[in-house]
Specification:
This protein is 44% helix and 12% strand. The chain is an alpha/beta fold. The mean pLDDT is 94.
Length: 212
């Protein structure tokens, strides 16, 4: 197989959570009379607390708690992207080692994995509360590979954002950008290409061909 160790992002990659988090952060900004575009907000996913400080949010702890509360009301009904489950099951059955790497906390993601009956498909789960640094820092990827007993040469990071691609680049790992049409409102493809993804797919099933 080309890649033995498959590292996967959760939000916007396996789970269709981007609209949920966008709505949560927009609610926070609206309450504080701060106007930002969808792409400006999406560009900060994973680093929103720092981004909000830059945007002039003074009560950052309250703002992040509010966003988390709003999102938690909607997250239980989140769907997976088409074919995500099919791809995970096939990768797992074909002997690949799978790691979920997310900036979301274990609390926010654990019950969702159980709801979709996919938790057992992952050999390791690295959440936001497992590391000091978050993507695009390489620490989460390096920690996942350490737990998997894997190496960078046989690993690939699959994600939807500049944080995922940046983490892969910083860790010296190949990357797959998942960019379906619905992501156009969140991310600029030209901007994402600046991170030199090894592969770009709009159909999640293509990952099976890439990893084989």
């Amino acid at each position: 197989m080309k890649y033995k160790y498959i590292l996967l992002d959760w939000d916007g990659n396996l789970a269709k959570t981007l609209d949920i988090w966008l709505a949560a952060y927009k609610a926070v900004l609206d309450d504080r009379n701060i106007v930002k575009t969808d792409q400006e907000i999406a560009a900060g996913f994973g680093l929103l607390s720092k981004q909000m400080v830059d945007w002039g949010v003074k009560d950052i702890d309250a703002a992040m708690l509010q966003a988390d509360t709003v999102a938690k009301r909607m997250l239980p009904s989140v769907e997976l992207y088409p074919d995500a489950l099919f791809v995970l099951e096939n990768l797992h059955s074909n002997g690949h080692k799978l790691a979920l790497i997310t900036t979301s906390t274990h609390e926010n993601v654990a019950h969702l994995l159980e709801n979709h009956n996919i938790k057992q498909l992952f050999d390791v789960i690295i959440a936001g509360d497992d590391t000091t640094n978050h993507k695009p820092h390489p620490e989460p990827l390096e920690l996942a590979l350490k737990h998997l007993g894997g190496n960078k040469e046989d690993a690939v990071m699959i994600g939807d954002s500049d944080k995922d691609l940046g983490a892969a680049k910083n860790a010296g790992v190949d990357s797959v950008l998942f960019y379906p049409d619905e992501h156009k409102k969140f991310y600029s493809l030209d901007n994402l290409k600046e991170y030199s993804p090894t592969h770009i797919v709009s159909d999640f099933r293509k990952i099976l061909e890439i990893a084989a």
